[in-house]
């Protein structure tokens, strides 16, 4: 079924358990555009078809959510698309990291290491190479992955590192036109905020032998052909390259051109990539210098003399090589043809044969290219490193997969050994850890060994114990003087295929089962996890030793070209002042032996592989398996046996098997309930319910088959595909919920709009009806008469209204007098508050002085304690001298008997003192209990105060802040009481400890009294002095405590007064705000009234003498109004002055409050060493309760004052309204008079 799924989805990608299976389509497909990037950005795995972008997205999301390093392992045969998949992963990560953090606009045209500089999509497209067969790559979509030109310099450098590595590390093979001939592990570092912070590249197993030899249908590395096809004439002249591909021995015996690859265009892309990464022209010249030198070395002609000695008839090519490498031609020729070797204690020259000299040159080319490639990768890593914080990384592993050829050599063993380790890593991650988690979660699961225990095969290859493995045996044979490939093969067969006495060793027996000797060739057969592979051992010793002439290495280490000398710096000689060739070689030999420079290929590969596996184990892996659909490189063709063989070799089939049998999907109880509870409404009751029980009810309500899920101790496990089905059901349910919600909202909106339309229609009909009525009445004579007579009906009541207004004005005057008296009372209150503030300031100054005195007393007491401790130490030294005085004490025995009675009395006094100390301890214990009771009472009172504060908050907003402050003070008081109690307990422990010390001392004195009465008497006197000192110290402490109590009481009184002042200030603020609003209203009314009075005054001036009395009345009213205005202005000024004074007082109170708080903190810190703090807490609580009652009284008084002020304002408003009505009456009366005239 899985194979059918691959056929149906081809050309595409599909999931298989933990794998993503990617098939090479051999054609361009629109699968990597910007739209596809956005399609997979931030989506779940089941929301989109399988894709390499989804694997990169999962790694990105897991790194951010789980804060864990990620790795993506891409394996497959040559031509399966591993390199392209690696590039797509890197490009996707660069795109989404740029989208997550858009760069700021560039402020300077100079490129920096930040993400400010960008390139257009066309530039990125031009820089990315198009290699290989036209159907094997899809790099044409690179421009779509540039995040619309927003990539910064670092992202572009990471992307442009690929063309460089492909030029120097990729080649054309029979299976792939752009095959990676090395493995690499690319680590992309991310900062904590998700930005790309750098990158690093590790490389493995470079096929350096391709430089000198390859199949006729294959090519060497791309850079050789690109250099010859695209380099400028000046560069070729500097590198002494004057011919074409067919002119160089290392290139003309194999394929020269490849369909679909333009070496000239690839050269330009390589140059652009080198410039982008940051290679200088000198560094680029050094890289191409090594490539050109290798081509020239291949053209060096070596012939043989009659004595079968090698010779170089034409040294022109050697001179070119030496010119490029910066080495002397004579030393180079001597090192190749007649190297010097150590024979005993003497150096002798050894002539080489023709074949030996050619082998030396081949080894030199391979070493040059390998070291230059390593230096290239190091330079790229240096360019991609950034001095910024790196939180986590995503690693991408691109390495050759498990392959079986007709002839499998040493390189193939290392590749298959690497894949064996990677498959073991996958098995451990997928099978072992998975089943161990089933056991931890308590799921009924029978542990299954899926036949993939690869440890025996790995032990067979790498074991170093009692039974050495293949690689260790090969290393051992490499150091034997007469070892050959045949002796190595026979030794291996005798060790692993022959009978052994240690077959009872189970591990060794399993490893032997994986080994078989070859029947027809010189070699052996290994049973790998995929299949049996037969290896030929021809040339293995030479390949493993990777020999290089010591004479050549020393010459190259001393090269005039700095780059070449750096490559061979490990072979550099220590300068010898004696000079001479003998000394040169002697020092070089000793240095080489001392440094241990000889390391085989197997040793280096095991070290690199161990480092790689360590990095992978520290990450969360994701697996991608690339598949070759056919060997013809044709799109649309599907070779079923070939694909099945690859699926078996990649471990995909076993992955499907474990995924179908196990439970690959799991969710914690909390996440499962939170996500899928919406599918089962009403199943879970309100309140708390156990997570396991909740998940069990939800799963039962979802009607899932018991075989599809398991409930562990902390997670719910599901078979493959179950969560996808639940997600679909959840999406459908959410769609239905939101659809119904939208329908309800639309219904409400439509009804509201319809109601507005209906109300608008009713209003229109009402307006129309009133308009019709007015049109009918407008021309009716009776209506016209009514409208003219109606204003005259109220003229007869004007005099009565005037008398009423006079009475109201009199009342307003009386109210103004009362307000003036109240204002004076407020002024007196302000003066008293200022006096009280000054008194508080004086008290605070006195408290500061007392605090200083208290600190000095504490310092003296500490010094006295230190002196007492020194005296105690002196006494302990005296006690140690008692042993030396024992003989003298025996002589004074008689005298001591006479004084024994006096000493006994002194001892009795000490015992009485001890009894007193025990009584004091009991008193302390009783006092501690009292403190606990007082604390409980204080807690109850605190709770009552909190309730009272809540009630006060409901009564008025003005006291809300004050009540909250009281609760905070109570909490701090409780904390101080707790701290004081803890300090009292600590002091009791100290006193008890001191009492035990005194008791021990008295016991010692009693024992020694029989032998040294004088010393015991002296100790008794010292003890009495200490007792008196302790008594004085306790008295001093008691005095300090009393002082602190007095300070605390004064401080609490000051806090209470400050709080009262604050409440008064808040009340005045509220009153001032209300007065301000009333004043604005009154000002508007006065302005309107003044305008109307001016109009009346103008009209009355034009009237006859009949209006004289009315004018006088008007003048009197105006005078009264002027008086009222003056009074109002004075009141307003008084209020403004009161407000300013209140604000100043508030500012001063805040400053004093801060000072008081600081002083209070100092007092608390010093008072922590005293024992009576709990009593002060109870007193403070009672005082706070009294202050709350006082606040309530003040509140009621303030409310009454506020009501009186509001009544006054209402009276003033009434007076103004009366004045307006009088004005209206007078205007009407004047109009009536004019009409009568």
Automatic annotation (TrEMBL):
GO cellular component term, pick one: myosin complex
Ranges in coiled-coil conformation: 797-1222
InterPro entries: Kinesin_motor_dom_sf (IPR036961), Myosin_head_motor_dom-like (IPR001609), P-loop_NTPase (IPR027417)
Keyword ATP-binding: yes
One Gene Ontology MF term: ATP binding
Key words of the record: Actin-binding, ATP-binding, Coiled coil, Motor protein, Myosin, Nucleotide-binding
Entries under PANTHER family matching the protein: MYOSIN, MYOSIN-11
UniProt name for this protein: Myosin motor domain-containing protein
Species annotation: Coprinellus micaceus (Glistening ink-cap mushroom)
């Amino acid at each position: 079924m899985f194979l059918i799924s691959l056929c149906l989805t081809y050309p595409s990608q599909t999931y298989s358990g933990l794998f993503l299976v990617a098939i090479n389509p051999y054609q361009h497909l629109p699968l990597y555009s910007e739209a596809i990037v956005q399609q997979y950005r931030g989506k779940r795995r089941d929301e989109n078809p399988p894709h390499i972008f989804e694997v990169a997205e999962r790694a990105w999301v897991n790194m951010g959510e789980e804060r864990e390093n990620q790795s993506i392992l891409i394996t497959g045969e040559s031509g399966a698309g591993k390199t392209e998949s690696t590039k797509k992963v890197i490009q996707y990560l660069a795109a989404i990291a740029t989208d997550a953090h858009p760069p700021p606009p560039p402020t300077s045209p100079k490129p920096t290491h930040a993400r400010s500089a960008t390139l257009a999509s066309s530039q990125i497209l031009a820089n990315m190479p198009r290699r290989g067969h036209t159907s094997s790559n899809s790099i044409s979509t690179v421009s779509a992955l540039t995040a619309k030109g927003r990539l910064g310099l670092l992202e572009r450098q990471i992307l442009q590192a690929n063309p460089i590595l492909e030029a120097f590390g990729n080649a054309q093979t029979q299976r792939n036109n752009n095959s990676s001939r090395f493995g690499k592990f690319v680590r992309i570092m991310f900062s904590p905020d998700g930005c790309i912070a750098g990158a690093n590249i590790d490389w493995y197993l470079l096929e350096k032998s391709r430089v000198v030899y390859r199949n006729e249908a294959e090519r060497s590395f791309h850079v050789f052909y690109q250099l010859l096809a695209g380099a400028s004439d000046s560069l070729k002249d500097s590198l002494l390259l004057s011919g074409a591909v067919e002119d160089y021995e290392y290139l003309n015996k194999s394929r020269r051109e490849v369909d679909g690859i333009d070496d000239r265009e690839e050269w330009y892309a390589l140059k652009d990539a080198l410039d982008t990464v940051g290679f200088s022209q000198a560094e680029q010249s050094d890289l191409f210098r090594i490539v050109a030198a290798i081509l020239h070395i291949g053209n060096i002609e070596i012939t043989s003399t009659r004595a079968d000695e090698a010779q170089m008839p034409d040294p022109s090519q050697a001179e070119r090589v030496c010119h490029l490498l910066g080495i002397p031609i004579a030393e180079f020729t001597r090192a190749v043809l007649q190297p010097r070797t150590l024979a005993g204690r003497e150096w002798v020259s050894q002539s080489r044969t023709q074949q030996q000299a050619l082998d030396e040159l081949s080894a030199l080319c391979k070493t040059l290219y390998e070291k230059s490639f390593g230096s290239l990768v190091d330079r790229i890593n240096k360019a991609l490193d950034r001095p910024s914080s790196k939180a986590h990384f995503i690693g991408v592993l691109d390495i050759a997969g498990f392959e079986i050829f007709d002839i499998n050599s040493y390189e193939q063993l290392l590749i298959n050994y690497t894949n064996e380790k990677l498959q073991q890593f996958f098995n451990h991650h997928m099978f072992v850890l998975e089943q161990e988690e089933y056991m931890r979660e308590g799921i009924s699961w029978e542990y299954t060994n899926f036949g993939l225990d690869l440890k025996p095969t790995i032990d067979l290859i790498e074991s170093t114990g009692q039974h050495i493995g293949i690689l260790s045996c090969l290393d051992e044979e490499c150091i034997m003087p007469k070892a050959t490939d045949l002796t190595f093969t026979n030794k291996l067969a005798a060790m692993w295929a022959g009978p052994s006495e240690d077959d009872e060793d189970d591990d060794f027996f399993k490893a032997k089962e994986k080994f078989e000797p070859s029947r027809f060739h010189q070699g052996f057969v290994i049973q790998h996890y995929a299949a049996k592979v037969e290896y030929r051992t021809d040339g293995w010793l030479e390949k493993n030793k990777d020999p290089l002439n010591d004479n050549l290495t020393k010459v190259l280490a001393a090269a005039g070209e700095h780059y070449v000398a750096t490559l061979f710096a490990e072979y550099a000689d220590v300068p010898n002042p004696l000079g001479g060739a003998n000394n040169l070689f002697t020092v070089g030999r000793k240095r080489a032996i001392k440094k241990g420079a000889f390391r085989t290929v197997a040793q280096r590969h095991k070290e690199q592989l161990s480092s790689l596996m360590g990095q992978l184990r520290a990450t969360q892996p994701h697996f991608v398996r690339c598949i070759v659909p056919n060997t013809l490189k044709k799109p649309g063709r599907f070779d079923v046996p070939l694909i099945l063989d690859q699926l078996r070799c990649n471990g995909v089939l076993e992955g499907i098997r474990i995924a179908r049998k196990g439970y690959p999907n799991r969710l914690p109880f909390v996440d499962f309930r939170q996500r899928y509870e919406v599918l089962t409404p009403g199943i879970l009751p309100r309140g708390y319910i156990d997570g396991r029980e909740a998940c069990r009810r939800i799963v039962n309500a979802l009607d899932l088959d018991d075989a599809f899920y398991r409930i562990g101790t902390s997670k719910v496990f599901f078979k493959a595909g179950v969560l996808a089905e639940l997600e679909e059901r959840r999406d459908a349910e959410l769609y239905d919920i939101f659809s119904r919600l939208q329908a309800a909202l639309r219904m409400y909106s439509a009804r509201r709009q319809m109601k507005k339309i209906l109300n608008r229609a009713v209003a229109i009909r009402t307006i129309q009806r009133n308009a019709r009525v007015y049109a009918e009445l407008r021309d009716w004579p009776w209506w016209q008469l009514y409208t003219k007579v109606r204003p005259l009906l109220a003229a007869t009541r004007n005099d009565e209204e005037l008398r009423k207004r006079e009475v109201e004005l009199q009342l307003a005057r009386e109210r103004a007098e009362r307000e003036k008296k109240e204002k004076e009372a407020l002024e007196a209150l302000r003066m008293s508050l200022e006096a009280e503030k000054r008194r508080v300031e004086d008290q605070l100054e006195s408290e500061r002085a007392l605090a200083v005195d208290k600190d000095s007393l504490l310092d003296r007491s500490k010094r006295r304690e230190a002196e007492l401790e020194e005296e105690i130490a002196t006494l302990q030294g005296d006690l140690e001298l008692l042993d030396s005085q024992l003989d003298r004490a025996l002589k004074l025995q008689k005298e001591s008997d006479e004084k024994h009675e006096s000493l006994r009395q002194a001892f009795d006094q000490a015992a009485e003192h001890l009894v007193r100390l025990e009584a004091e301890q009991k008193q302390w214990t009783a006092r501690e209990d009292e403190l606990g009771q007082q604390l409980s009472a204080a807690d109850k009172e605190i709770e009552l105060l909190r309730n009272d504060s809540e009630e006060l908050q409901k009564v008025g907003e003005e006291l809300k802040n004050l009540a909250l402050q009281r609760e905070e003070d109570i909490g701090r008081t409780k904390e101080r009481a707790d701290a004081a109690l803890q300090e009292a307990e600590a002091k009791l422990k100290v006193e008890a400890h001191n009492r035990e010390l005194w008791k021990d001392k008295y016991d010692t004195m009693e024992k020694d009294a029989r032998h040294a009465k004088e010393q015991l008497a002296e100790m008794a006197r010292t003890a009495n002095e200490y007792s008196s000192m302790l008594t004085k110290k306790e008295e001093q402490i008691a005095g300090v405590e009393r002082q602190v109590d007095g300070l605390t009481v004064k401080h609490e009184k000051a806090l209470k007064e400050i709080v009262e002042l604050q409440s008064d200030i808040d009340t005045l603020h509220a009153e001032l705000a209300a007065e301000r609003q009333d004043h604005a209203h009154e000002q508007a009314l006065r302005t309107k009234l003044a305008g109307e009075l001016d109009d009346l005054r103008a009209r009355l001036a034009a009237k006859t003498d009949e209006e004289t009395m009315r004018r006088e009345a008007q003048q009197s009213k105006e005078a009264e109004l002027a008086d009222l205005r003056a009074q109002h202005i004075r009141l307003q000024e008084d209020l403004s002055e009161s407000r300013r004074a209140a604000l100043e007082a508030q500012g001063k109170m805040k400053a004093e409050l801060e000072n008081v708080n600081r002083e209070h903190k100092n007092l608390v810190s010093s008072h922590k060493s005293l024992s009576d703090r709990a009593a002060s807490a109870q007193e403070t609580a009672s005082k706070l309760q009294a202050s709350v009652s006082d606040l309530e009284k003040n509140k009621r008084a303030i409310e009454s004052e506020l009501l009186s002020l509001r009544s006054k304002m209402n009276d003033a408003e009434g007076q103004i309204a009366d004045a307006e009505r009088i004005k209206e009456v007078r205007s009407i009366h004047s109009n009536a008079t004019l009409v009568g005239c």
